[in-house]
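Q: Here's a chain of 507 amino acids. Please give me its 3D structure as tokens.
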Amino acid sequence: MIYHILIVDDEAAIKKGLSMLIQKALPNCVIDGTASDGAEAIALIQKSAPDIVITDIKMPVCNGLELSKFLFENYPDIKIIMLTGFADFAYAQTAIQYRVSEYLLKPTSKEKLVDAITKIQMEISELRKNRGFLQKNSAVFLERALNEVAFGSVSDEYISTIASCWPAAQTIYYCISFQSKTQDAPGKSNITLIRNILEQQLQTSFIYRYGSAINCLYFADNKNDALSFAQDTANLCNLLYGVTVSAGVSREKSQLNEIPDASKEALSALTSNFFTGSHVGVFESSKNDIAHQAAPIYRTDLYTLEKALEDLDFSASRKIIDDVFDSFRPNHISSSQVKYVTGQIYYILTRIILQNSLPEGKTEFLNLLDRSSDAEILKEYLLEMLRNIEQSLKQARKHTNQLIRNATNYISGHLAEALSLEVIADAVNVNPSYLSRIFSKECGETITEYITRVRIEKAKELLRLSNHYIYQVSEATGFNDPAYFSTIFKKYTGFSPKEYKNKYDKN
């Protein structure tokens, strides 16, 4: 697979050096051209869009941030690597809103540049595979992609894929969230029944799971059409299957990046039905704002619970839930308010489950909420959910820790050999992209940086404690080029290998 690259920098020497380095290290990369500023780059991109743009941040006429903004708005598929001096790094990070893929401090090393490009190549490859999959099975892929978008865990490559499926000449949509209030019949899922009704009515496949609800994007010119559709769907579910369905409708939306907000609004409108007794609710900021809805005194508690769960502080999370339920009676909280607050906690826990790809477990919450008049039963249900989340995350963390140990053990045992992300991933039986992501997250450095650091530490040990020649130490630690070994060694230690060895020989 060929990847096309455009290099943008106002220094000719840097452009030439990057071009030569990339062509030598990455034969599957083609340098489409170079530009001296963002304006020149934009002109080249409009003629032939590359896969990757490597750009400096400070340039005349049109700088790297302005170029990134242009690419974000007009060519979202193009991946960006930002080059920046140390003093400008904080400034460069403001480009995060433009989905810059990688930041590299100048002067950057060959390893870091190659690692960054290789990582992006994997992303592009996955995107191309996904598009092929979409053509074969658009409905399945679209549901998965929409779910990831809705919960904010989307990979950038999905955005353009969803955009390619967007109905022609259609800009306005509403998110509608549906939930069953009827207990599932043996061997039947009410969610599946609702989905069947939606698929029969909709001409598009914008249907996806959102927690315990089933959501759809409904393309319509006005809110009344969306409300009518939601009501008709609820009526059909009752008529055909005897299932009572509640629905919530978001505000009008027009952009893909509004799907997360639309999903939350639809769910909020759905939960507001606890108060109105209606089967179809519409999101209105004044009515659906937790600060003005039932039990506003719990707004801070709910926010604190979200933060505690994000930090994986389960002890604090349990205490918050206990304290909230203990306060219901002294504060004279009504049963409807109790149900509302319980529902909000449930959806917070559900988001954690989905964001971490954990098993969903029980699905009878809404039925329990409708039936129960005992707050203690509701609290125990939520605490059980919390215990299951904690246990599942512990198991996941155990797996991750073992994976990291296996990877580092393999590296330690094969320092003299050619090591790459792909080789190590194959050795520990995981996807290279997954290993790269997990390793960086858990270890605070890339796997390439780790390999280099371990090799240098081993080289220092051999130079101190053995009579090996420098070229032998170089070979023993996986540096086939003694000159390159000397350069990297001095970068890490401040000494050349010879100086370092002489220092310890004298002692």
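Q: Can you summarize the key feature?
A: The two ends are 54 Å apart (CA to CA).
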